[in-house]
């Protein structure tokens, strides 16, 4: 499409007028007029013609109406491949729209005309406007200031940007899906967000999660009820079994059979027990007969043994008495030998005792003499040691009175030297008043004559000069000197040092130090001597002395016999005594042995007497004893016969006896059967009651119904969860497909745009590149020398240039796709400097080779180098 | 003397319907309960006194106390009728607790047929029941129907279970022979277990359930009113409708270009019946994206009419034409995404589940774009 003429009637600036621009060429056409001419009115009128329906009464349309009112009209003449057309619109009052062909023939009007324009602007697609509009204010280049006019202008610029973006966005939307894509994606994301997390897991609180949770909960509840149902089934089966068992147990015929069998068994048991009693009696009879027989034989044996024992006891008694007599004779003989040995031994022992006493006395005398010598020696040492100790203590006492040390003396001497030096300095500083008397007259000071040697003045003094008067001598500031204070402190230090030394002068201190050193030497000497005399201390020495004296005092002092001689005699006497003692012990041993032997023989005799007496008592009359043996022997065969008969009787009873144990076992078994039946009956009835109770409780819960319902609900919930899962997967797949497609579209879109921009950009900024945001699809940064510069930090002129270049690139894209669209710039280059604006003109001409560009500007001189067709607006009364 | 009675079975009182939403679940359970009253009305209309229930009166061996008590009270309320309850496989005699409770709480007009012995219903009319001893007894219980009755008496058999399996030469043990009526000299054999109504022989019928509980059977639920004029005379059976809910399972096989609305209107019940209708629509065939979207919209619009409504579109293939994709977009990223999904859904090298997912995603894209453009 190419615009050839624009005509406005009664439109805003042109109230009651018709303004027309003719002869718009293929390339660049420039309408250069001063401000307030109405260039923007042309711009807005043309925009309204293409984008606002003739019946619209919206604000943008109302702004077209002049203050004087009336219906604004706009018309445009265009060339299309199909031919030349005129499009007209009138708004607000008697609105109308018409399309005429080159011959003036009406092609379409009203809504058909609008549809014709729509087709023209969007080519039947939901895409581009067909026009690219650029006006002052693009990309944030807004007027500064807070005035009403500036504010109004900013709003207009904002509208312009929106218009511009919408015109570009149409194409972008067509390629990337645009707002529809955004809306679809938003709905997909909303739907997904309601159901799933970002990782496509069920979202907590969402329908999917609720379905999953519900299914899980119902599964658990089903499992719980299934356990109960299984228990109920098991208990129902158990009750059936119990009922069956109970029926068997309560069968009357079987019960009667068991009772009858028990009665028969009881009778058989009684018979068996009676027979067993008879056998027991027969067994007792047999045992008695056997006892009688054995007792008879036993008695015969015992009597015969008694006869033998009586004879043996008599013989034993005689032998014991003979042995006793022999031992008693030997005992008397050994007693005499023992007495003789004792006498000999006592004599030798007394001799040994006497010799031992004499030897002890002699040895004691020798020890006493040695102890006296030792005590005398220790006494001498002790005296010497005691003297040294006393001398040492004396020295120490004297030494303790002296405080002086070498260090203290050194300090005192140093203080003395300081004091002397200061005193000399002080003295030298003082005023010396010295008088040489020649007569008797004397100068008086304080009423006393002043000595000839004079005085040194530290302060002012008054002198009476008899016959002359009174004279005052003032030494001035001498007294105030610091030296006096130093001297005072030195004297105090000296006094303190001397006090520490315990003396009043240095000489005394030196003397005291010499004395102290002498005393220290004496103390050391006394200590050394004492240590030598009493290494363990004087106390120990004293103890040893006392011990020696005690030992000397306790011993006999008179000398006795020679101990060695006495020792030999004693040894010989002891040997003799030992021999006598051995002989005495031998005799005593022999006597004791015989005494024991005699006692044993006496016991043997006594025992033999007792045995004989006892057997005799047991035997009684010896004649009757023999008769008794004979009688018993004769009665023994009858007892054997009785035993034989009793055994035969027992054998007969045992042979045909019933088995009592079997009878008892039979009764026991049958009784256990009957008892067991009763117990089983009671147990089963108890079990049945328990099972009935449990079944009743479970049946009251209607478990199967509840379980059936839960299973159905669980299946439904699971199916619902599965449907949600499938829905989430489908939505996720759709989202992926949409995002992939948009990304691909953007990549496809950016390529051509950048290819178109690059040559234009190189005209102004050689080597630079433009970076485009993949969301807004507009330039966001200029890259120069490898550095990204955001649009917001670029100069207004550069941003303005980039904005126009971007739109020119879009225009070339449209032209390249066979849909050439005009570019209209309304005061769009207001910030560019002279160099750049010329470069922009070059860029415009580069695009204008196959692109219509209409430029509206108030900068007549600045745009003179642009060249191109110069348009003239003709204005006439409407 | 003509003897009339009502033959029914498979009431399945207390059935849970857990797979359905709570509101319809409650209504279905209530319909199960109120069918007792509807059976009573049917009996009265037919001039019958006895209602013979051929098993599965209760759905579970241990129904809840409420289910049991409500049933017994409902039967007691129909005091002019006599209810003959025979255990089926669901409520067999093994359900000892159930029958113990029924016996303990039964009204006077209720008879439990717990023994396979003849019961005299009226003068010269004998009932020969074959109650189920277990859920799967493993033997033909109807042999008991050969028990003797007085000469010239009308013999009515009442059994529960499947008819003989003819796929094997000798039949399966535990299955009722189809000629049981002839074998045992019965004038009528009323059977239960099969929820659809079915005539097996001249005098042998499955009554079917009086209130449907699923989509399996196409016959309308009801009971059989039976007239027997005399021993040896042919039994006359007629149907009495007793069902409250219709369970419909229509199938729609569709092709692009069809008038789906008309098809749908044709298979759907009248609007006045829809509240008491459970409908599972199984769709198959092919639809374009637009048709499918329109179809789904229509289904969503009519769903609230029904007591329960479910559609299964899993077998509906989406036939996508360029025009359909144009409705998403004629170019740009949206069209590119649609093309990618379409290509993926038709890619034979991919797993079917993957293709189905792409197909579903494409349908969602179409629907979302229509929403956005609306």
Percent range for β-strand residues of chain B = 15-25%
Listing every helix as H and every strand as E from the N terminus to the C terminus, the arrangement of chain B reads EHEHEHEEEEHEEEEEEEHHEHEHHH
The CATH C-level class name of the domain at 2-176 and 765-877 in chain A: Alpha Beta
* Mean pLDDT value of chain B: 91
Describe the structure.
- The complex is a heterodimer of chains A (878) and B (374).
- Chain A is α+β, with helices and mostly antiparallel strands and 878 residues long.
- Chain A has a domain at 2-176 and 765-877: Rossmann fold.
- In chain A, 67% of the residues lie in helices and 12% in strands.
- Chain A has a seven-stranded antiparallel beta sheet. Chain A has a five-stranded parallel beta sheet with strand order 8-18-19-3-20, sandwiched between helices. In chain A, strands 15-16-17 form a three-stranded antiparallel beta sheet.
- Chain B has 374 residues and is α/β, with parallel strands linked by helices.
- Chain B has two domains: 3-241, 4-Layer Sandwich (Purple Acid Phosphatase, chain A, domain 2); 246-373, no CATH class.
- In chain B, 32% of the residues lie in helices and 24% in strands.
- Chain B is built from ten helices and 16 strands.
- Chain B has a six-stranded mixed beta sheet, with helices on one face. Chain B has a six-stranded mixed beta sheet with strand order 5-6-7-8-10-9, with no helix packed on it.
- In chain B, helix 1 packs parallel to helix 2, helix 8 packs across helix 10 (352-373) and helix 9 runs antiparallel to helix 10 (352-373).
- The termini of chain B are far apart.
- Chains A and B meet through helix 4, helix 5, helix 6, helix 14 and helix 15 of A and helix 2, helix 3, helix 9 and helix 10 of B.
- Chain A: InterPro entries: P-loop_NTPase.
- Chain A: This is Chromosome segregation protein SMC.
- Chain B: This is DNA repair exonuclease.
